[in-house]
Amino acid sequence: MTELTAPKSSISSKDFANEIRELLKYEQGVTPEQASAADVYVAASSAVRRHLMDSWMKTQQDMVNGNTKAVGYLSAEFLMGRQLRNSLLNAGLTEQFNEAVKELGFDAQKVIDAEYEPGLGNGGLGRLAACFIDSLASLGVPAFGYGIQYKYGIFRQEFDEEGKQVERPDYWLANEDPWGHIDYGRSQRVNFGGEVVEEDGKRVWKPAWAVRAIPVDYMVPGYASGRVNTLRLWQAKSYDEFDLLEFNKSEYMKAVEPQVQAENISKILYPEDSTQVGKELRLEQQYFFTSASLHDAIRVFYPGQDKPDLTTFADKITFQLNDTHPVIGIPELMRILIDEYGYDWDTAWTVTTKTFNYTCHTLLPEALEVWPASLIGKLLPRHLEIIEKINDQFLAELADLTDDQDKIERMRIVTDEDDAKVRMAYLATYAGSHVNGVAELHSQLLKDVTLRDFSDLFDAKFTNVTNGVTPRRFMKLANPGLSELITEGLGTDKWLSDLELLKGLEPLAQDDEFVKKFAKVKYDNKVKFAQFAKDEYGFDLDASTMFDTMIKRLHEYKRQALKILEVIATYADIKSGKVNADDLTPRTFIFGAKSAPGYYMAKLTIQLINNVAKVINNDPDVKGKLKIAFPYNYNIRVAQLLIPATELDEQISQAGKEASGTSNMKFALNGALTVGTLDGANVEIRARVGAENFFLFGMTVDEVEALYAAGYDPSKYYEADPRLKAAIDMVANGTFSDGDAETYEPLVTDWLKKDWFMTLADFTAYHDIQSQIDTLYADQLEWNRKAILNVANSGYFSSDRSIEDYLERIWMTGPLDK
């Protein structure tokens, strides 16, 4: 990887202050004396955009005119985080900003805090997409991120008095958004419904209704590359926004009905889809942004051409399907090529298969999207015809490849039943040039289990690209103290663009003075997070305790239940006198998690964690020894404070269920030790940081599968482990529900009768590893040596390296010429 020097703009802080003054006056309509921190934030952001504009335009021009194939990253989520600090860093304007706002009489951090975090993602999938487009720009690779500008994001999480999750709209666009540029002149028409008819020997789609897709462009500046790429998000608007006749008849709701129907498409991320209406909206969303994006790419790469030569389309841009959400783009490109540009089937198929690649992010069959064919036929009748023809073509190819009729039936894209289903992952695997998993273990299990039939016949399509995270946001911005110490230790800041340089920290792990400096940085980060938690949530956290953190989307396979049951069991040991509280390592357990609105068991687990916290945090017998903090609405802002402060990272999913994980990478890079199973990227992290610097427990994938096959009875583990039994009994008897034994009955019943993700089977092993953790933590010098070794050996987990793997293994392209 080429080492790059940190960017530094030549503009002076005085000139930058004058730019902000001008924008305050002419854009915000206020003087510096009248301005609020929010005004200064908007003005400063606008000033940064101006400084990036030339590079942005040059990047677009070079992308279209050059010979470098671009990347189109299609994703339902882009969890970007706040933009100002990141853009200042990449534009080389951080120092000028800090001094300019001070000159204007403002505190820089208050200006930064005036930015509302974009509500454009849910968790790891969206954050990965954000890291990837950052790395693409930093490597100088021309790229578009394509998605939806959700008006209300996923939801803003709150907790009610009973500890239950409550979903509120996330009004992230309620105030000015200086980063998004709306371009009405480049909107696209997206059609839905209707019927397909025969006209002059051709199949012609006659849609019933349409929406207008309006692009909102966000600059994605690269670090030290001089390149600025584009995140293009689509807003849905109606072509018939207002019916004056209905309004004049006092039919006010009818007057705006088309507008409401259209705008619902870009209202919220992942609408609840347990109903038919919810399913329709999800499919509408997916088609909306993929259709608009494909048409946009044709416009971008063939400017002003009525009849472009689209046989070269795959030479202009390669599209990565980030999970199954954008897979409807495959039949859409076929439709565009055949219906709109007149290509024959075989030519269209050749172009399409060269254009798309598919990333699978799951091993859970239920997470691989399957749509009722009837629903696709209702919303996208022409696409269903194309999908059915693709399926017929695929079955014919399979018949030439294998005599195994059962295998052929298993591999069908469209199922053969009365209520036929369309398997989107199968469509993507057949039509895509490449299929990749996101960690070595995940990619192998993808081939061996989830998509085994496909890998048997099309092994050359399958590859692995282990995920990564951007060190600019999650080290330089999130952890400035550690970043400065690393630069001091290495004697260079070039590690920010070549993270493998962190390997040079290894000898410093044996330098006691450096280790003490590292420990001081970690402690300062804990104090900083504790103050934030006090100001934001009212928590009283003790920075002298171990910060033991589990931040994950709330899902049963991630096993937050395992963590809280161990906390309860420890609490029970203290209350019963089996353990002296003074003999324990004082710990603050920090959870961060949202549950899908319709996921009952996950929401019940959130309620349990909150109510265990209520009991433990108010019990004087464990004061100073056990504390639980569950900040609501966990997001990138919280992550950038919590991850640097964390000492023990919990990665305790059942082996074989986590695709990769990226929080595990962020924690290791920021000097936390990990307790985890051999799951996802944990396997690679442990191999690189050293088994002796990772707390391993639990069953392997093979052991999990063997236990499933033998017949898993969770009640045996409940009866065999007195600590586990005591913990579950406390949940069952109402200790954490004001004596109400019914509140958590569904959880208790599931643990004892089903426990599909084997929380109980791994409980004893999880407890046993805690004594090793306590022993090591008591030796702070040795603990921090191991933490430094985690940092030193985590350079592989840069998203820059991930993108370089994509470029080499899948996309077959590279950076623009400088």
UniProtKB/TrEMBL annotation:
Its cofactor is pyridoxal 5'-phosphate. This is Alpha-1,4 glucan phosphorylase. Transmembrane segments: none annotated. Its EC number is 2.4.1.1. PANTHER family: GLYCOGEN PHOSPHORYLASE, GLYCOGEN PHOSPHORYLASE, LIVER FORM. Belongs to the glycogen phosphorylase family. It comes from Bifidobacterium gallicum DSM 20093 = LMG 11596. GO terms for biological process: glycogen catabolic process. Allosteric enzyme that catalyzes the rate-limiting step in glycogen catabolism, the phosphorolytic cleavage of glycogen to produce glucose-1-phosphate, and plays a central role in maintaining cellular and organismal glucose homeostasis. Phosphorylase is an important allosteric enzyme in carbohydrate metabolism. Enzymes from different sources differ in their regulatory mechanisms and in their natural substrates. However, all known phosphorylases share catalytic and structural properties. The gene is glgP. It is an enzyme of class 2 (transferase). Residues 384-411 form a coiled coil. GO terms for molecular function: glycogen phosphorylase activity; pyridoxal phosphate binding. The modification N6-(pyridoxal phosphate)lysine is found at K666. InterPro entries: Glycg_phsphrylas, Glyco_trans_35, Pyridoxal_P_attach_site. It catalyses: [(1->4)-alpha-D-glucosyl](n) + phosphate = [(1->4)-alpha-D-glucosyl](n-1) + alpha-D-glucose 1-phosphate.
